[in-house]
Amino acid sequence: MFISFEGIDFCGKSTQVELLRDYLLEQKKIVHLIREPGGTEISEKIREILLDKKNNAMVMETELFLFSASRAQLVREVIRPYLQKGYYVISDRFHDSSTAYQGFGRGLSVDAIIKIHNLAIGETLPDITFFIDIPNEVAIERKLKKSHSDLDRIEVSDNTFYERVREGYLYLSKQEKRFRVIDGRQSIENINKQIIDEIKSLESNK
Ligand code: ADP
Ligand code: TYD
Q: Whose CA is closest to atom 8 on ligand 1?
């Protein structure tokens, strides 16, 4: 099973990815975790370019192609082989991040982005996508707890950018049957329970 996690920065994805991994391991499943951008030697190099604050001259088209290039490599080098071996592959962000951030956030054509997804990932789509939804104010509160120097090139974007990204995710959740919207303001434990219930229900319908 291929599972992706999405949401604006600080929504709690990484926390939930780890809890889901622990649950699946307890169930004696084999699990492989990945995060985007990154996950292969080449993709990690692309990640450095993308998140480096010194690269503030980067135009949005370059940004889109770099995220897609990193993903194309990850799909072929890691995701497909692991899925073939029967692993649960859990990804902290996948292609929906590009639709939300580069499409809705930056304003690039969503139709063009979908065509690029077709080339970069082909048929390798998540079976289920958890969109952990938090209002921007909650993200800002959590972000304030982090020192500014720890924020990456994208995390320093202004609040209206994040409003648009969130709109993008809400749009995708209406379009895509694999999306499950989870209220990220709940406790970490409740969110984890909801995610496990969704996984169980998907497996029982397989
Ligand atoms: P992301 O990977 O989406 O950026 P993290 O999992 O790293 O998010 O969480 C961002 C911050 O919010 C961390 O400090 C984390 O401890 C905290 N956090 C995560 N989930 C919750 C939650 N449900 N309620 C309150 N704080 C949370
Ligand atoms: P990361 O440190 O992995 O953030 P997070 O822990 O919030 O996932 O940085 C990834 C950043 O890149 C994050 O701000 C979202 C952004 N991003 C895009 O803009 N487009 C994409 O396609 C992906 C995968 C990430």
A: 12
Flag whether 69 is in a domain.
Answer: no
Place of tokens 């391991």: 25
For residues 109-138, average pLDDT: 97
In the chain, how many domains are there? 1
- The confidence score (pLDDT) of residue 155 equals 80
Q: Whose CA is nearest to atom 23 of ligand 1?
A: 188
Confidence of residue 188 (pLDDT cuts 50, 70, 90): very high
Question: How far apart, in Å, are the Cα atoms of 4 and each of 14, 73, 91?
Answer: 11, 17, 5
Cα of 128 from ligand 2 centre, angstroms:
19
Instruction: Give the nearest ligand 2 atom to 8 CA.
Output: 7
Q: What is the CATH number of the domain that holds 162?
A: 3.40.50.300
Backbone angles phi, psi at 172, to 5 degrees: -60, -35
What is the chain's mean pLDDT, rounded?
Answer: 96
Has residue 97 been placed in a domain? yes
Residue 191 CB less than 6 A away from ligand 1:
yes
